[in-house]
Automatic annotation (TrEMBL):
Entry's Gene Ontology molecular function annotations: structural constituent of ribosome; translation initiation factor activity
Lineage of producing organism: Eukaryota, Metazoa, Ecdysozoa, Arthropoda, Hexapoda
Compartments it resides in: Mitochondrion
Key words, A-Z: Mitochondrion, Ribonucleoprotein, Ribosomal protein
Signal peptide bounds: none
Pfam family, one: Img2
Protein name: Large ribosomal subunit protein mL49
Keyword Cell wall biogenesis/degradation: no
Family per record: Belongs to the mitochondrion-specific ribosomal protein mL49 family.
GO cellular component terms attached to this protein's record: mitochondrial large ribosomal subunit
């Protein structure tokens, strides 16, 4: 604001027209006072091309419309493992997400003081999965922790109190789920 007043005073005292002042410091304060947009040819020069040779370079940049099937192999640099267990091998089954990842999430609430590990996409006997996971976690932690769980049978969710994401992922991968 001080710069604008300084320029106005300098222009008025020097006798230069006020039209220069408006072009030097013009600020649009709202949508209504902003200048009306013109057609794109006014701002940039572009050329529309329908050449298939040039379109190859554009296709590389576009995101995939479908998720490709997981690659074949056993050892991947990221540590990802394909699902080896088949439906019906266990009384329960944990489906992978559409990106072929494990559906195990950490839910943080109460300003970071409450941590809950949630397993989604559970099919079959969710109570047996809860029992097996509880037994595994008690074996890992010993009698140091109480493993509190909550089963949402209709949605196919299993919640475990605490941050157990890495242990649950490890157990699911060991089972092939």
């Amino acid at each position: 604001m001080a710069l604008r007043l300084l320029i106005k005073n300098a222009i008025i005292t020097s006798g230069v027209s006020l039209r220069i002042n408006n072009s030097i410091c013009k600020r649009d304060s709202s949508y209504r006072s902003s200048p009306i947009a013109q057609d794109p040819s006014h701002y940039t020069k572009y050329e529309v091309s329908s050449s298939p040779e040039e379109w190859k370079f554009v296709e590389r940049l576009l995101p995939l419309t479908i998720i490709p099937p997981p690659p074949d192999g056993k050892n991947f640099p990221s540590g990802w493992q394909p699902q080896t267990a088949k439906f019906g091998q266990y009384p329960y089954f944990v489906h992978r997400t559409r990106n072929h990842m494990l559906p195990v999430y950490l839910k943080v609430s109460m300003r970071g003081t409450r941590r809950i590990t949630q397993i989604n996409n559970v099919d079959g006997d969710i109570w047996k999965l809860e029992e097996a996971l509880k037994k595994y976690l008690q074996k890992v932690y010993g009698d140091k922790r109480i493993i509190a769980t909550k089963v949402h049978e209709v949605c196919g969710h299993l919640c475990i109190h605490g941050d157990h994401v890495s242990r649950v992922n490890e157990w699911l991968l060991k089972k092939g789920l």
